[in-house]
Amino acid sequence: MFQDYSIDDYKKACYIILRPDLTPEYFIRHFGMSRYEYSICQQRLKELQKFYGIEYHFEENRIHWTVTDEKQFQQHYKGMWSFYNRHRRNLTNRSELVRGLYIARKILLANDHTDLDAVSETMVFSRSNLRNAIKLCRTFLQSYNIRLENAPHYGVYPMGNEWNIRRCLMAIYSLLDVNVIPEEDYPEIAEGLSNPHYPVLREKVYEALLHNSCNYSQAQVRRLTYYIFFQHLRIRQGRIFSGFENIHPAIIGYVRNSERLMKISADITRSCFGGEAFSEQEILSVAMMLFEMYDEPEEFCAFVEATFPEEANDLYRMVDGYLLRSYGFSITGLYSSILRTTLYRLIIHHQMGLLSEHAGHSESRAQMISDYPLVMLLYQNIQQLLAERYGNEAAGICCAPLCELIAFYIQGMDYAAPRLRIGITARSDIYASEMIRNLLLAKLNPRYYSSVECCTYVDMLENIPEARKKYDLILCDERLSNDPLFLSYAEIRNDLNNINAYLQMLRDLFGNDLKKEDIRTQELKLSDGWAEELLAESRAFPVAAFTVEEIQKKTICVNDCLVLLLTQQTAPHSLLQFGKLKSRLRVGDKRVSRYLLLSGRVNAQNIRIINLLLYELIQDPLFWATLTSCPCPETLNNQINRLLK
């Protein structure tokens, strides 16, 4: 049965279909599997393939698939992109999650009490084996303020606010996507949320939003469509919405009095269900969904600042203070207003009692977060800050949009790179150097040079090393020596338009931070006590002493690499150590086969460079191999200079 598989199994099934050029090595590394786990994965995917109308082929150098049932394949293919992107990096991959959500769904959709013994029999599992799944089910429901009432001899019954129950069903069916995960128990729901029926409902929602000049993302429209679907389903089942629970009265009053939100809600319900009349309370519930997602930032921010001024200021200072303390910069300009809007959405979620929801209002972490080790560490730290502030671990889930914003800001930050001192001289013509200088100044990017000077005494530059120290590059009408410091006019004349590219590659981006002796590669053997072993390894690093707990907090897993970042704004210098692990190591639900340790200075002047360096090392196997064979600053500069304009 479909409950026997994990979310991870379904993600792998989608990933292969979405990647036609897939190799076994890349697939294994992407999902952090061992060879044995890969063989088990093949068996499980072979069992699932008939549901998608395809056949998987696992060859020595290639993984591909062929269609066996075109109609069945087309029905499921369109939902695979959104499913994989939605769930590629969030929640847990354990099979208990699917079983727990299956039980939760059974309980919420039942007309009466649910006998868990009967449910366990339908799942072909003993009650004892399902203990973890039932525990997860209770935790998931509790995050939506839904509790289970036990009635002896009858079973359990869900008790909770109708709006919360609908949102919980939205989350469950977002995870148990009927286009990807086989659905047999509720054919009405399976039909309504699958192709081709769901796109029709979604288009009606789109049209109503466009008619009212709304601006919502695709993910927000999907969530709103899911709510409309379950609203109609629950009304037909006699489950009527009568009011909200745990939502601040000021928010309810604002939404109820908003002519725009109430009109849009009425238009949506009327458009989706052929003019069927909905009560004012039901229209209000849709309006509350619209308000939570917001599409008028200025009006939204004005409401938050007027209603929750202290929380707004405190939350902004908390995030801004963290960035200043840790990395020495603040978000400014346009990004500052976007930051406030993003933080205010957190406040609204808090005041609506939504921060506890598991998977209710979050999408998968953006690639900008998951693929960049430095941003990933920042994400974990802000998660912890939010969890501590709101006393709720799930609150940290909401910080993905916030950290994505910070990631974009870092990529646009200026960086400190030494500018070249250029000297121009000539043997034959006293005016040649001046003409070349004027030509260069018209073409050179100011970021790449600090001065361009004409030099009169050619012999002095050629014969006296001390005279040459004044310049990083000398241009002459003929090459003075084989020293790479010198270039002739002839060497640049035909390529003058690319002089900026040449100067770009000459920059020393890492300066005093990473010298040759600060870059080393070494194979390590780590065990289950990897934190203590990394602590011992880090004692040679140029940073303050850390505890085992601090080492764990500063360690993240990206792809198949264990990354430890010990960063400080003011450190004497940096040290980069990396290499393979002698044996694969399991860290949480990840398997890693290599490691990377970086310690030292990360601040506003170099954070963009360090962020890119870590990304390239983790994501580019060729760069990793090149630096392994030649661990020196030149290798780093060659790679990063090509990417930083």
Automatic annotation (TrEMBL):
The keyword Transcription applies. InterPro entries: BglG_antiterminators, Mga_HTH. Keywords: Transcription, Transcription regulation. It comes from the Bacteria. This is Uncharacterized protein. It comes from Faecalibacterium duncaniae (strain DSM 17677 / JCM 31915 / A2-165) (Faecalibacterium prausnitzii).
